[in-house]
Amino acid sequence: MTDQNHFLIRKLHSLLGLFPVGAFFFEHTLTNSFTLIGPDLWEKWCWCLHNLPFKVPIEILFIFIPLAFHALYGLWIVYVAKNNALRYTYWRNWAFYLQRITALITIVFVTWHVWALKAAELFVGSGGFVNFHNYLTSSPALLAIYVVGWVAAVFHFSNGIWGFLASWGITVGPRAQSYAYVACMLVFCLFTAAGLAALYQLVTVSTVTPLYSMMY
Amino acid sequence: MEPRYIVVGGGLAGLMATIKICEAGGSVDLFSLVAVKRSHSVCAQGGINGAVNTKGEGDSTWEHFDDSVYGGDFLANQTPVKEMCEAAPGIIFLMDRMGVPFSRTPEGLLDFRRFGGTKHHRTAFSGATTGQQLIYACDEQVRRWEVAGKVRKYEGWDVISAVLDKEGICRGIVAQNLVTMEIKVFRGDAVNLATGGPGMIYGRSTQSVICTGSIAGQVYQQGAYLGNPEMIQVHPTAIPGADKLRLMSESARGEGGRVWTYRDGKPWYFLEDMFPAYGNLVPRDIATRAIYQVCYDMKLGVDGQPVVYLDLTHIDAATLDRKLGGILEIYEKFIGDDPRKVPMKIFPAVHYSMGGLWVDFDAMTNIPGLFASGEADYQYHGANRLGANSLLSAIYGGMVSGPAMMQYAQGLKKSCADIPQSVFDAELKRQQNATEKLYNMRGNENPYLLHKELGEWMSEHCTIVRYNKNIQKLEEHIQVLMERYQKLGLPDTGRYANQSVIFARNLWNMLEYGRAIAVGALNRNESRGSHYKPEFPERDDENFLKTTKAKWTPNGPALEWEEVDVQYIKPRPRRYDVDKEASK
Amino acid sequence: MAEVIRLRVKRQDGPGAAPYWEEFDIKYRANLNVIAMLQDIQQNPVNAKGQKTTPVVWGCNCLEEICGECAMVINGTPRQACSALVDKLTKPITVEPLSKFTIIRDLYIDRAKLFNALKKVNAWIPIDGTYDLGQGPKQPPAKADWMYKLSQCMTCGCCAESCPNYSDKSDFIGPAAISQVRLFMNHPTGQLHRDELVDNIMGNGGIADCGKSQNCVRVCPKEIPLTTSLADMNREALKRWFSRGLRF
Q: What's residue B584's pLDDT?
């Protein structure tokens, strides 16, 4: 076994899942959560992000390339596994299986999500809260896809943190690993709640109150 | 031309012989029925003896030698035993260097514990599975030589016979692949049979399934002598099982276990009753005989079965876990009861064969070029083996036989390569024909049932208490079984991975070997070590301080007697009711 | 307890042959285990339909759960057949061969892959020789105890059988061999070679291929802390990678 690149690639895959892909995911969640404070604030924050200096290189370098690598090499990892969660029904084995299932769901969802929104942006013009509200409420199926996609991505992210800690030798013993798992599941709950709350906000609120009037 | 070395058997003896040969520049063809790592050596629990004297007890290799000879009731040749005991500390250090995780003292040195038949802390141990740990270390070294290209492993081969040339010199072996069933001949200048004991002759014993003694039984039919075949050690405490009798280590009694059964509806602690001085801590053979007597002569086995209780329930669970944890788990695992709460059901079981292929002091049988080592030979334990001497003798046996094979092969005028092909073809043909005959047997005797019957007869008549009348009956019955063998019908006639054919062939060799055990026992009219005859309760040095040498003839075993080498320690009565010193 | 126990055996006449199920009725008796049931079939090879058949082919040796030979899948779980007590199994009892290895016949399998992995990772102490070189290195008693735990691996293949990443599709050498590397690199002599030992498991099929399903530690009959070994070797491999990467 002299193929030393193998180790590098595997570890890179694991690392990129957390930094920057995970970090971006965290930022994205935070951004979504601005809807909870006020649609207007969310719109302004989005405006800032859309007008970041060096936006395109940042997107390519820190989001697209890492995400694409993580996703494509991940597909290979998914392919190699011979899942046996029905035979060995231990929770960790289910988590192993779900990590791969959610990987596939997330890849499909994210690709579609990005394509749909970027296309909309290109052809229809900027999103905006109301547009997005109209978009999400246009079809219950669409909303359902968002919910599923979100939960899948969050699971993949939080379970992935647990995996990262083990495969980087940070949590070694069984007890350290189970405490880490509790923490990761808290992350799962938190992020799921944050994302679903944002969706709820987007679906239920149809008008934008100007930020100025909220402040006073 | 480089000499070719064949080692048969991948237990401790075979692996150590292999390592020794490779280290000295030779290459080895290593044959084994199973992956060598799975050999029977893994079953040894207690430890390995070596007089290192780390506990300030004045132990010495001489004391170890004296204990071994005395424990073996003076039947062992003293020179090889002496050399083994002298090599023992070095062997333990070597195994430590090889990575065996021996238990250690607070200072980080090897720890030693006490075992039966000695007053010294002389037994190095690795948890409750010392044999497993020792063989793993050897397995790893052999794998290293395998990677280096010096060892070619033939795992999953049954060695059928030795190839002897016209002068009666061993020139190779014939073996059969367990999967493809291909029978092949292999040339070798020196062949080492490190094939373990013959426990399967007794049906169920503490030995592994592959311990059939088959190849020893085969070369015996080809002219090799069996030495002291009648010397079979029975361990007093084993857990009866449907498929096997599993060892319950003697340390259970050592830590305060009490042996009892019901008499008149009340518990009877018969060892304490019969031997007030030593109670439950009487030596192995005494305990074994007492349990036998209680179950068979007095018919007092628990529930009418041949079992008695070994009781630890009066000791608190924490103490038990600390001192006997690993051993109690074995009982729990295989019986399903918790010995901390319920007394264990135990009965003696055939455990080890002191006898085996007769060898000279260089581990060679009377067939030139054919060596034997480990439990397969008869060399180191006389009439009774001390606990923790078996791992030692297995490793030491390999250390002697490996270099001896090289010395022998390098001194050969004609190598196996110079022997005409016809010699090999003839033996190959003979074995192919014999196997073909087995395939075509269409009688109604099932080989597995025949084996079961052999085991029951051997166990009943030739183990703990031996009466000539019964042994006679046994020997006759073995001949009946041999006749019935001719009416075998194999339950499987396939030509691929057919285990029935292999088993049937081994069964014949077991019958032959079993007969040698019976005849050896019949003719030794004395009691010595594990061999106990109520009709002749005393040791008789005048007539029987001799090695039984059984030679195969078509009419059954012919016995010869050989003087025992007693040049270092004068035989004295073996008594455990007083200190060893008092008996000198 | 019923008089007769139904045993379902997944049989296969040879590698590549189509597997089929055959059922047997075995007379119950105390302390019956799966091995004794298979032995009964040898002595009376008749299936539950009353038809004559061939004895089931399987491997076994010590029958004390220490040699590792009789591993098979019993009621869905890989384990040693000798320690599978009938009293503790749900009925009917099903037995299948380990599926991750070449099936020779019935329950008899070829596990050369496992031993080849041990060769790949150099699972041994590189001693200078078996000559009398004096005492071995001193070792802390507590460390000797945990090394003993790792050293009990009998290469039975249960961990590999349960591992979703151990298959024809991947080169993963499996948890057992990696745990052995941890054992050897912690021995005082192995420590002298820890870099090479770690290097051996950093390539394709090595430590990075563990997917952390953690089935291995659940099914290991010897209760070896395999997942701890895997995480620990992950750490060692990373340390090694950084130290190598920053010193080029």
A: 62
* Structure confidence by residue, pLDDT tens digits, C190-231: 999 999 999 999 999 999 999 999 999 999 999 999 999 999
Evaluate if residue A1 carries a pLDDT over 50.
no
- Count CA atoms closer than 13 A to C187's CA, side-chain side: 26
Question: May I ask the CATH class of domain B235-350?
Answer: alpha beta
Mutate to test the interface with C, among B243, B399, B496 (most CBs of C within 10 A): B243
Q: Are residues C41 and C132 in the same domain?
A: no
Q: What is the CATH number of domain A3-215?
A: 1.20.1300.10
Residue range A98-122: mean pLDDT, rounded: 91
| CATH code of the domain containing C193 | 1.10.1060.10
- Closest listed residue to residue A7, CA positions, set B529, C207, B347: C207
Domain assignment of residue C29, yes or no = yes
Residues of B in contact with C35 (CB under 8 A): 243-244
DSSP codes of every residue in A59-99: IIIIIIHHHHHHHHHHHHHHHH----TTTS--HHHHHHHHH
C85 is in which domain, residue-wise? 4-110
pLDDT for C160-179, tens place per residue?
Answer: 999 999 999 999 999 999 99
**Of C76, C170, C217, which has the smallest distance from its Cβ to A87's Cβ?**
C76
Closest residue in A to C75 (Cα) is: A87
Model confidence pLDDT, tens digit, residues A36-86: 988 888 888 888 988 899 999 999 999 999 999 999 999 999 999 999 999
**Residue whose token pair is 């333990």:** B92
Distance from the B214 Cα atom to the nearest Cα atom in chain C, whole angstroms? 15
DSSP one-letter code for B385: P
Inter-chain touch C164–A177, beta carbons under 8 Å: no
Provide the 8-state DSSP code for B543: H
Name the neighbours of B, counting chains with at least 3 Cβ pairs within 8 A.
C
Whether A126 shows a pLDDT value over 70: the answer reads no
Q: Final residue of a domain: which of C58, C75, C110? A: C110
Q: How confident is the model at residue A125 (pLDDT cuts 50, 70, 90)?
A: low
> Once rounded to an integer, what is the mean pLDDT over residues C108-135?
97
List CB contacts (< 8 A) between A4 and chain C: 199, 202-203
Positions of B marked active-site: 284
Mean predicted lDDT score pLDDT of chain B: 94
Question: In this structure, what token pair is assigned to residue B221?
Answer: 């039919």
- Domains in chain A: boundaries: 3-215
| Proportion of chain B above pLDDT 70, given as a percent | 98
Looking at residue B487, the DSSP 8-state letter turns out to be T
The structural domain count of chain C equals 2
Least CB–CB distance from C64: residue in B34, B37, B246:
B246
Q: Is A175 on the interface with C (CB under 8 A)?
A: no
Give me the CATH number covering residue C57. 3.10.20.30
**What is residue B116's predicted lDDT score, i.e. its pLDDT?**
73
What would the DSSP string read from start to end of B192-239? Answer: EE-----GGGGSS-SS-TT---HHHHHHHHTTPPEESTT-EEEEEEEE
Domain B421-551, what fold?
Methane Monooxygenase Hydroxylase; Chain G, domain 1 (1.20.58)
pLDDT tens-digit profile of B561-576? 999 999 999 999 987 6
Contact yes or no for A11 and C238 at CB 8 A: yes
Domain boundary among C110, C126, C155: C110
Provide, as residue numbers in chain A, all residues whose Cβ is less than 8 Å from the Cβ of C75: none
Half-sphere exposure of B378 (CA within 13 A, CB side): 31
- Does one domain contain both C37 and C146? no
Bridge pairing between strands C93-96 and C102-105: unpaired
Interface predicted TM-score of the whole assembly (ipTM), two decimals: 0.97
Range with top average pLDDT, B125-134, B543-552, C136-145 = B543-552
Q: Which of C220, C210, C99 is nearest to C155 (CA)?
A: C220
